## 1
Amino acid sequence: MSEHTIDAGHAGQEPDSEVIYEGHGFNVIEHGVHHPHSTRKQIWRVFFVMLAITVLEFFIALTPYTEAAVGRTGKIGIFFLLTVIKAFYIVGYFMHLKQEKMNMAYAILIPLLFILYLITLLMFEGSVSTHIPLP
Amino acid sequence: MSTIEASTELKAKWHEESAELKPSVWNGGRVPMGVPFGKMMMWFFLLSDAFTFSSLLVAYGYFRATATLPNGASSWVTPEKVFDGIPWIVDGHMPLVFVGIMTFILIFSSVTMVLAVEAGHRMDKKTVVKYMIFTIIGGLMFLSCQAMEWSHLIIKEGLRLNFNPFAASGDPTGMTHGSVMFGQLFFTITGFHGFHVFTGVIINCLVCSAAYRGVFQKKGHYEMVEKVGLYWHFVDLVWVFVFTLFYLIN
């Protein structure tokens, strides 16, 4: 450890999340540095979870059972739910956003609400253009 | 004393004083985001890119929902008809198989990327280079698949920006809003995503060669691998949404 070890806001509680300045940048020391095997295990676990979700999506898309049970809207809802779960795994585990400080995570996640805002707007106002004849 | 001299003196004094201060929230001792500057900016770039892609995908949803024939039925093209088979190899009756392979390739290259990042944390140069090469191969395989799909649709099927051969039965011209928009949105969105994969492969090549030459070993950290990793995972993330919207929903 260098002499410039500086408290990242969790001193005394989580010694694993210390920030150490090294050269130009600095590395957030994660749990994985101390247990490389468990990190690699977790990466493969996440991969198999995502593979399982994709296989489930194929099953729903290629067999008529789901549509018969919950209808087309329900099927699309399930697809969106599974997609968001996959996105959660990619952002949280592959991009390590779960290991970042909450400040960082909120700075990235809160602006994404604007996307929901755009979708909501178009759902209520989008029908306006259906009155305009399109070629 | 001139103004410049005075300000230089003030600056020197400020530096002297601030050197004595203990690190605290107010003088930069704590890092509000807890990440290096470059990594934070990569996150913000990806946030802006997320807005670009989401506006494209929301536009897709909007045009798909509003595509109607005069009789009220949807004029949107059935994706199963378009993506039916393996381009240039198997003709028809194998929906989702090819795109499933593409999805698997991209998710797998994401895994090798995150393994390279993990090896970077351990300062394991050899493993970083190995997994980066796997990631580059995955990216090139994905791009080849996309080239196959595009060339098949354009050359063999005759899908154009202003004409769709797969048009719904109520649209014999293949040129109504729903039919035409399908091709336009498909080529725009998968093209934009493919361009991201392409740049990702190039950046991966540069970072891989730097890692091989020992640049990061000398620097003492593999932060650059983490940054390019973030970009690569984002490309995978976008594909997850493109896959659902274009291929899964029928």
Note: The mean pLDDT of chain B is 89.
## 2
Amino acid sequence: MSQNNERKIVTFSLGHRMFGIDMSMLIEIREWEEPTPLPKVPSHIKGVSNLRGTVIPIVGLAERLGWEPSAIHSRSCILVVSLAGQQAGFLVDEVADIVSINDTQVQPAPDVEIAEPGVISGLVQVALRGDASGDGGTMISLLDLEALHITRQLDLAA
Amino acid sequence: MSDSLDEIQAIFFEECAEGLTVVEAGLSAMAAGDVSRDTIASVFRAVHSIKGGSGAFGHAALLAFSHRFENVLDEVRAERLQPEPGVIAVLLSAFDILSDHVAAAQGRASVPVDGPVLAELERVLLGKDELQPVVVAEPEPESAPVDEFGFEPVAVSIEDFDHPAEAAGWSVRFRPSRAALANGGEPLLVIRELEALGARIVQASWSGLPPLRELDCGDGYMDWTLAIPGEVAESDIRDCFDFVASDSVIHIDRAFAEHDEEPASVLPAAPAIVPVTSSSAPAAEPRAASSNAEMTIRVDLPKLDSLLNLVGELVIRNSILADRLSPADQEKVELPQLSRLTRQIQDSVMSLRAQPIRQAFNRVPRMLRDLAAETGKTVRLEVSGEATEVDKTVIERIGDPLTHMIRNAVDHGIEPADRRAAAGKPREGTILLSAEQKGGRIIVRVADDGGGIDRERVRAKAAQKGLIDPDAVLTNEEIDQLICAPGFSTADTISNISGRGVGMDVVRSNIEALGGRVEIASNPGQGTTFTMILPLTLAILDGMIVRLGGQRYVLPLGSVVESVQPAPGQVQAMAPGHEVIELRGQYLPVRRLTDFFGIRAGARPPEDCLVIVIESDTAGLVGLMVDTVDDRREVVIKSLDRNLHPIRGLGGATVLGDGSIALILDIEAIVAPTPRDRIKGLAA
Amino acid sequence: MSKCILTVDDSPSMRLLLKASLTAQGFRVETADDGQDGLQRMQEVRPDLLITDINMPKMDGFQLIEAVRVQNEFRGVPILVLSTEFSEEKKARARAAGATGWITKPFDAGKLTAAIRKVCP
């Protein structure tokens, strides 16, 4: 725990939006690999993959947040995270960079684009390497992945 | 100490005996005209094995002879030497001498005179067209080539060079290539080796490191420059980078005089292989444990696993055999008897891995004490059947469900002491924990003498949550099952103890995911009993790999009766979505797995599919339609609910040898109608 | 936590010998008796190091090494070939398949350990 509440954030894009998650929950970043599909699961659960012998679910993050499913391309990757003792992989469009932020820089989340409460825990402006914009950086939304409750069996409405 | 080596050597001699049998059989076959690749390969391998072991155990004469013998066999195997009768005759003589050598190595006979046969082998070798250099070499253990390792440094430009402070020293620069890293080459280890020679890092550069989004983790982006004292021989430095691929070069500046030093000497010395100080002897000898009253025997776990393998093999051959018989023959009494026997053998062998369930039960008393402190309810525990043997992974997997059920019993089942007294019950509640084995299943019961399930309250809650229609008519059993429905909780406030009140549906899902089921029996005012019914073995499943729509799935072999390739017309549709297959006069329902999983791929005609007949507990014999069958394999079950949640119809997943995932099918769930459908149906 | 080594060899006595030798050095040892079994065991055991023979029925050492290297997750695992053979062409083949190094049988425990320490700290 650093004294000035600094933490490292992994930033990535979903479509045109930029997001970040706390690096402490990141296990690894993997190349996209077609997962083994599961029957009778919501469409945002793409299937399961083999992570060093453990079977983990692969979630289409954009879909889970209610947007267009991510298209797969050469830069697509899976962020493998550990959430409350469970592991899961989230498909993102592109990983940008790892940045350090200070808690004081984080602004409260605005009116939500996302229906579920708590999923976006805040906004922060960061400077990303390779960024074309010269005006102080990019605004990223910090995601609280645990708030997505991936492992709760959702009542299948159909 | 050298006992264990003796034991291993004894096993080696057993292997030699087997190998000699193989050689003899193979050579006889060859003499009779069978010169197939397999036959020749089996002879080669047997002699090769004998050679390998003889070197390890120090039998020089045997080693030398078998090596020459092997050389000739290698030539035959590679088709550089034709196995004509003359050659085979020489091989047979060689075999005789080999047997004598083995006997001599065992001390059973004196070392044979092998000169003449060796000369014959030599003659046969020279008689062929090409001479391979490797054939001529004598195998000297001491002269075995030095270990070769290494990494593949990438050619780096000469321009910017860091000249070390000492003009007489070496400057080494390298950057591991992608290929080096891919082959397990670890730059750190190379550096350590160089450091062991006296090197120090002058510069480590990571300027080549791109931003994260462009990072290819399989590539090397760092390069190092090291300075090494001049006394170190260049060959020693190169040794550290050995196993060099053709596309990479290491840059070392300044040539120097040779020095005679083995890199291995710089590393800490390790004990020679004889004597082996390890005290763990492979427990291959059966020696009755004299300290136990019961007769027990120590068995090597791999032997058990291989026995399991063979039994599984037996089951599948059984199935194939049945398939080959004509329908009339299939009905004869011998076949079902054989199948039954095979299944019994399988069950027996599987039970050999079992351990008493006591281990899983041991946590309960402590749990009750903690719960007593939290709730103020004292509960007495009675345990029976704790010696019931279950597969060791049942013990591991049953822990959480058991915890949930005990907590539920104390939290919701057992009434507070005053209420109990008013009802004429002892103030202290009782929980009966029992385990027994019945058929191929383990039955674990948690029974409390509490107030039973408050059905009115459960029903009301379920209606309120929309799980049932308010005026639906439900039997008592159906109401009881509601407490396992997802999203249900009788606690109005989220209870600390039972977690978030989702205990029972998680328990049921977990048990079902393991291939079992949960039954509930409740008597108002008297108590509730939860029964978990689990299959005997969990961790390792003897499975049949089937293919469906390009995906592989695993069917538990224990449920498989036979597989049928339907003839045209054998499968008929009684009604849309309901097909049956006619099998020896009986009509069995057929389920298409594609339907169950909602796979929309075009339905293949039955004649292009395979129907696997399975025996289910709840629905009798059912046929499952799949595309093809791959093979039979023992798979390790990986639970889906660890990182996701249980999925109806799946008993987990497994990772196959090539890294891909195959889903394990839960037969009972596939053939039974879904309970949720039934409940929803009531709401309709 | 001691390192885990998976040894693959179709000769039971060789497996036992290796196991005794390596266990004495403080390693945990798992075994498999041919290439196919070895491949499955790789998934189950996930060793820090794989040591394999070449001549085995069903699936030989080269095929095993290739099948292991194809899987991304095993890319960085060191693989040593332990074989009585020592021809350059066999070594080249092993290298091409993705082996990290080659040790010739009969092996001296000291050399074996040194080799292991080189690829597996």
Note: Confidence is low (pLDDT under 50) at residues 154-158 of chain A.
## 3
Amino acid sequence: MPGENVLPYDARALRQRISEDRAELFLGFTPWQQDAQGWNLSIREKLASPPGKSIRRTVWDSQDNRNARVLIDIIECSSAADAIEALLEELAANQLARLVEAAPHLGVASFVHPEGVPPAVFFVRGNICIRVISFARSAVAVIPWAERLNERLNNEPRVEQNRLVLESNRKSVATGEEAPIFYTLPWMLGGDGFLKFLGSGGILVAREGRLFFKASKRGEAQIRGYALEPGREPHAGVLNLIIE
Amino acid sequence: MKIEEVHFNHDTSSASADALSIRKNAAGGPIVAPEWKDGQIPQPAAYASAAIGNQVSIKARFSGGPLNGSREIRAIDACLPPAVPSGCLGWLLSLIAQILRALFGNILGDAQQRVVAFNGAGNSGLETFVLINHKLKTSSVGIHSTTWKWQVKHGRKWLDFGSTQHKIYLILDLPNGPWDQSSAANNTQLPWTDALDKACLWALGAKTKDEAAAKITLAMNGQPNQTYTPVTMFGFTPPYQLTSYMNQIDSGLPFSLNCTDCADAVTTFANLLGCDLWEGRFFNMVTRRFLPLNGNPALDTDWVSWTWGYHEISWLNSIGQYQDIYDGCLHVDMDDNYSDTVHIPRNPIKMRFGMNAPDDYRFRLIQSGAGSLENIPRRRAVG
């Protein structure tokens, strides 16, 4: 009888946690030095990835202990639904028979290694699945790292300047339809810069370098965008659409 | 007269009479002939021993020849063995030199003399030279160096007119998946020289595929900066992040990986040399105590047991209950008393998966649980 990997996780319930009329989407998010104070960045890699995904890897080394390292992978997907699938892939690619569901404040879904096992945490925020892993012989508590990243993703900064321009070629969009969203900044973001989009009335999808809003509920939709980068004032932009 | 170019992979559709199609890594482009061009950094070439036919050739181009004339040209090994010095020490030094030459020296032999015609500007066409005295079918896995002296015949004398140096990888057979020889544009699955540098060093001197797979498994398992974690670090869903894995090894810094990563490494490096391994999983088990990566076999506390949803290993030829396997992730304990502190570590190298026989891998790894096989053979594309 051939074997089958039956995972002890309720995939359907995890998928149902994705909101259909509120969305957050991140492009280019990466850990900053401020997320890892006292640690040295030793590796920054863009890993080869299948279409629709990009994986940015950073490895942080303790300044005091050669055997203490933390690996952070940011798996950027097209949508929140795809990020849940990426999380399920992570769980399937873990040798442990079962991971423990983590504290609910870490994104829409999060899992950790049980006690006594090299620490690791996996969680989903918007369209990104993040894994933070104790990467060498000394066990490093990874939850605080995940919390710092999550807090920065949560952050909706006060913005003085709206220089992030959000536009669409549609004034209105029907339920179930997609409207392209064009965003422009007057400068190029640096290696640590990222864009954060929040949407209401539908979901946000990034596809082939373009951003789309998929309407789900009649009424008004709003898309807010933020350009965030260390050492630079945040900039924002807003776009309103009618959902028919 | 001057040597302008030397071509090793002059027929990209075959590797029976010339070199393989290779590339530097995923990011770098394919290495295309001429691998040696005057004034440029020479590029390496690779040969697959079992694929080599009756005749191997290179191609070369020359300039500065006689206008509308012809000359006999050849290339010979510039590093001829010195005379054996007298005495025991001399004999010993000569033996060491012979071993070093066998492992790292010229395996291309010489380029057989032939008449080369030159045009009115003194340039030749791209001329084919048959390799004679080569050891491409008899040598073992390795990274070899050839220095050729190019000579032209004047009367009855051969006069040197140039010298070329070449880095040559020798592998056992055509690489198996994920590697291929397809000439498709920007094929990232052509054998990488970055990976050949590792695989040929790890399996240095291997003459058979079994020997190569064993050496690769041992070397992979023995990398000193690795520790075990249950998380797949280098890609369960393809691609296998080979670039990232090699960066970690080369960094010398400690890092963690799991069984899937080990199976990927063993399979990918062994198959690069022509072995025929597959990655494959089995499910649901509580293990006996085993020695994880870089554990100390003499320390009882280093022998550990895990409860696993799956374990992934490398399988020889195919996945099956009685197939042979390679596991670079751990040592099993061959001591029959599992409750004492005596352990006999064994690298699972060409060990039968089996069931409950004392020499079966399954018996030595699994204490309880189904350990049922997933019949999905994998060779993850590299990235």
Note: The two ends of chain A are 54 Å apart (CA to CA).
## 4
Amino acid sequence: MSEKFDVIVVGAGPAGTSCAYTCAKNGLKVLQIERGEYPGSKNVMGGVLYRKQMEEIIPEFWKEAPLERPVVEQRFWMMDKESTVSFGYKGLEWGKEPYNNFTVLRAPFDQWFAKKGIEQGVLLINETVVLECLTENGKVVGVRTDRPDGEVFADVVVLADGVNSLLAKQLGYHKEFRPDEVALTVMEVINLSKDKINDRFNLEDNQGCTIEIFGDSTKGNLGTAFIYTNKDSINIGVGTTLSSMIKAKLKPYDLLDYLKTHPMVRPLIEGGESAEYLAHLIPEGGYHSVPKVAGDGVLLAGDAAQLVNAIHREGSNMAMASGTMAAETIIDAKKRGDFSETSLNQYRETLYQSFIIKDLEKYKDATHTFEHYPQYFKEYVPMLNRAASKFFTVDGTPKKEKQKEIMKSFTSERGTIRMIQDMYRAWKAVK
Amino acid sequence: MSTKTIEEKQYLVRFKADTKSHLTVLDHDICMTKCPDKICTIFCPAEVYKWEGLRMQVGYEGCHECGSCRIGCPYQNIKWEYPKGGHGIVFRLA
């Protein structure tokens, strides 16, 4: 295998395939290496794929890609033990072109996407682990795989090897992540008939719904749960920062079962048949955790570069956009005949000027704030539920008095000053 | 039926186990003497780690390759590699 390529892409998830696809489309000789049996066999996502960044790679992909449902409704629940305060948006404009986002199952989707890359000329090799980057005078010149004679060379190596990017760590681009920089998430795919899904979620055939659940879904720990509708199955999952999981001594699968049997959730999945159970880490360190993304002969994209906006559950779109930016940089670098860090830093600059790093920067203190001050999930969600219950229960109390009582209950529980501090801190973290 | 136990959950997943473990507990004494919580036995989403009184049993065959144990072990006592190409967990759906 000691052949030379223009580009070696490690990983066949959204970041890797976006990069490989764009490079190959522009005439570069691309080798893509995937450790799984097929692309997607190691990849996990809650299930929302955004239209915009995918469309920029493959226009009108929705006409051929294996998608589940276009999402027309996004709900948010602030859930307590026996109640929930909800808000959301349903808009039929999301149910037609150009769409906003779709639910997907990643194993079929990633295989389809990788196939599109192959059609552009990408050479995809599955079932191969990249063990290390080969360097010469500090420049990455190729990779060593676990195949016999498994050394391959290229001008640029793109590390799109996911949240457990052992390769980026080996290069010293980041230290081992801390437990508060990653979220451990578990989910199940539960088969349920299309009719039941449509009835229970108030949908028509080609309409999907997403529910993000805060509060008791994680027993008040920093994290969220989600329920996404596929065509004839439901993805239901829950995750918290690994540090919260450790601190609360939670078994993730117990938390998942707690969610599944929660009185607010159970009726939605009742009678469903579990089809798969999946666990995965999400890089949620945000802005402060983004490692060095460009070096001599090497670029990092997607989860490997910690490009996830946990607040808006955006990740695969950032993977795709960063993979494409990496490809564009490589194409330009090829024209310059210069694959040094200085040349490849074009990627860093593009990335930092894009929505990706701008959004991560906006929320740079959010995870840290909510981790450090657990009252938002532990206290305010139940408080909000009690307030809603009080306000909407008709018991002959005049509304003005009710409002006063609610405000009083807030301030007496937390104290006026502490509450103002809490509000200000939360606002600052997400403003 | 929807699953209730971790065993039932794991039963839904396809694994193509290698003959060699990709997870190694470096020093079982550290687990025994320094780590009363044995926290990996709690947070591991696949119940790969089971404490057997003197040493940590590692059921790598059921590993989801999530990486939590590598990051979450308070003593960095777990060597974590990827299983050989084509081996380990095989997700079929999401």
Note: Chain A touches chain B through 59 residues (CB under 8 Å).
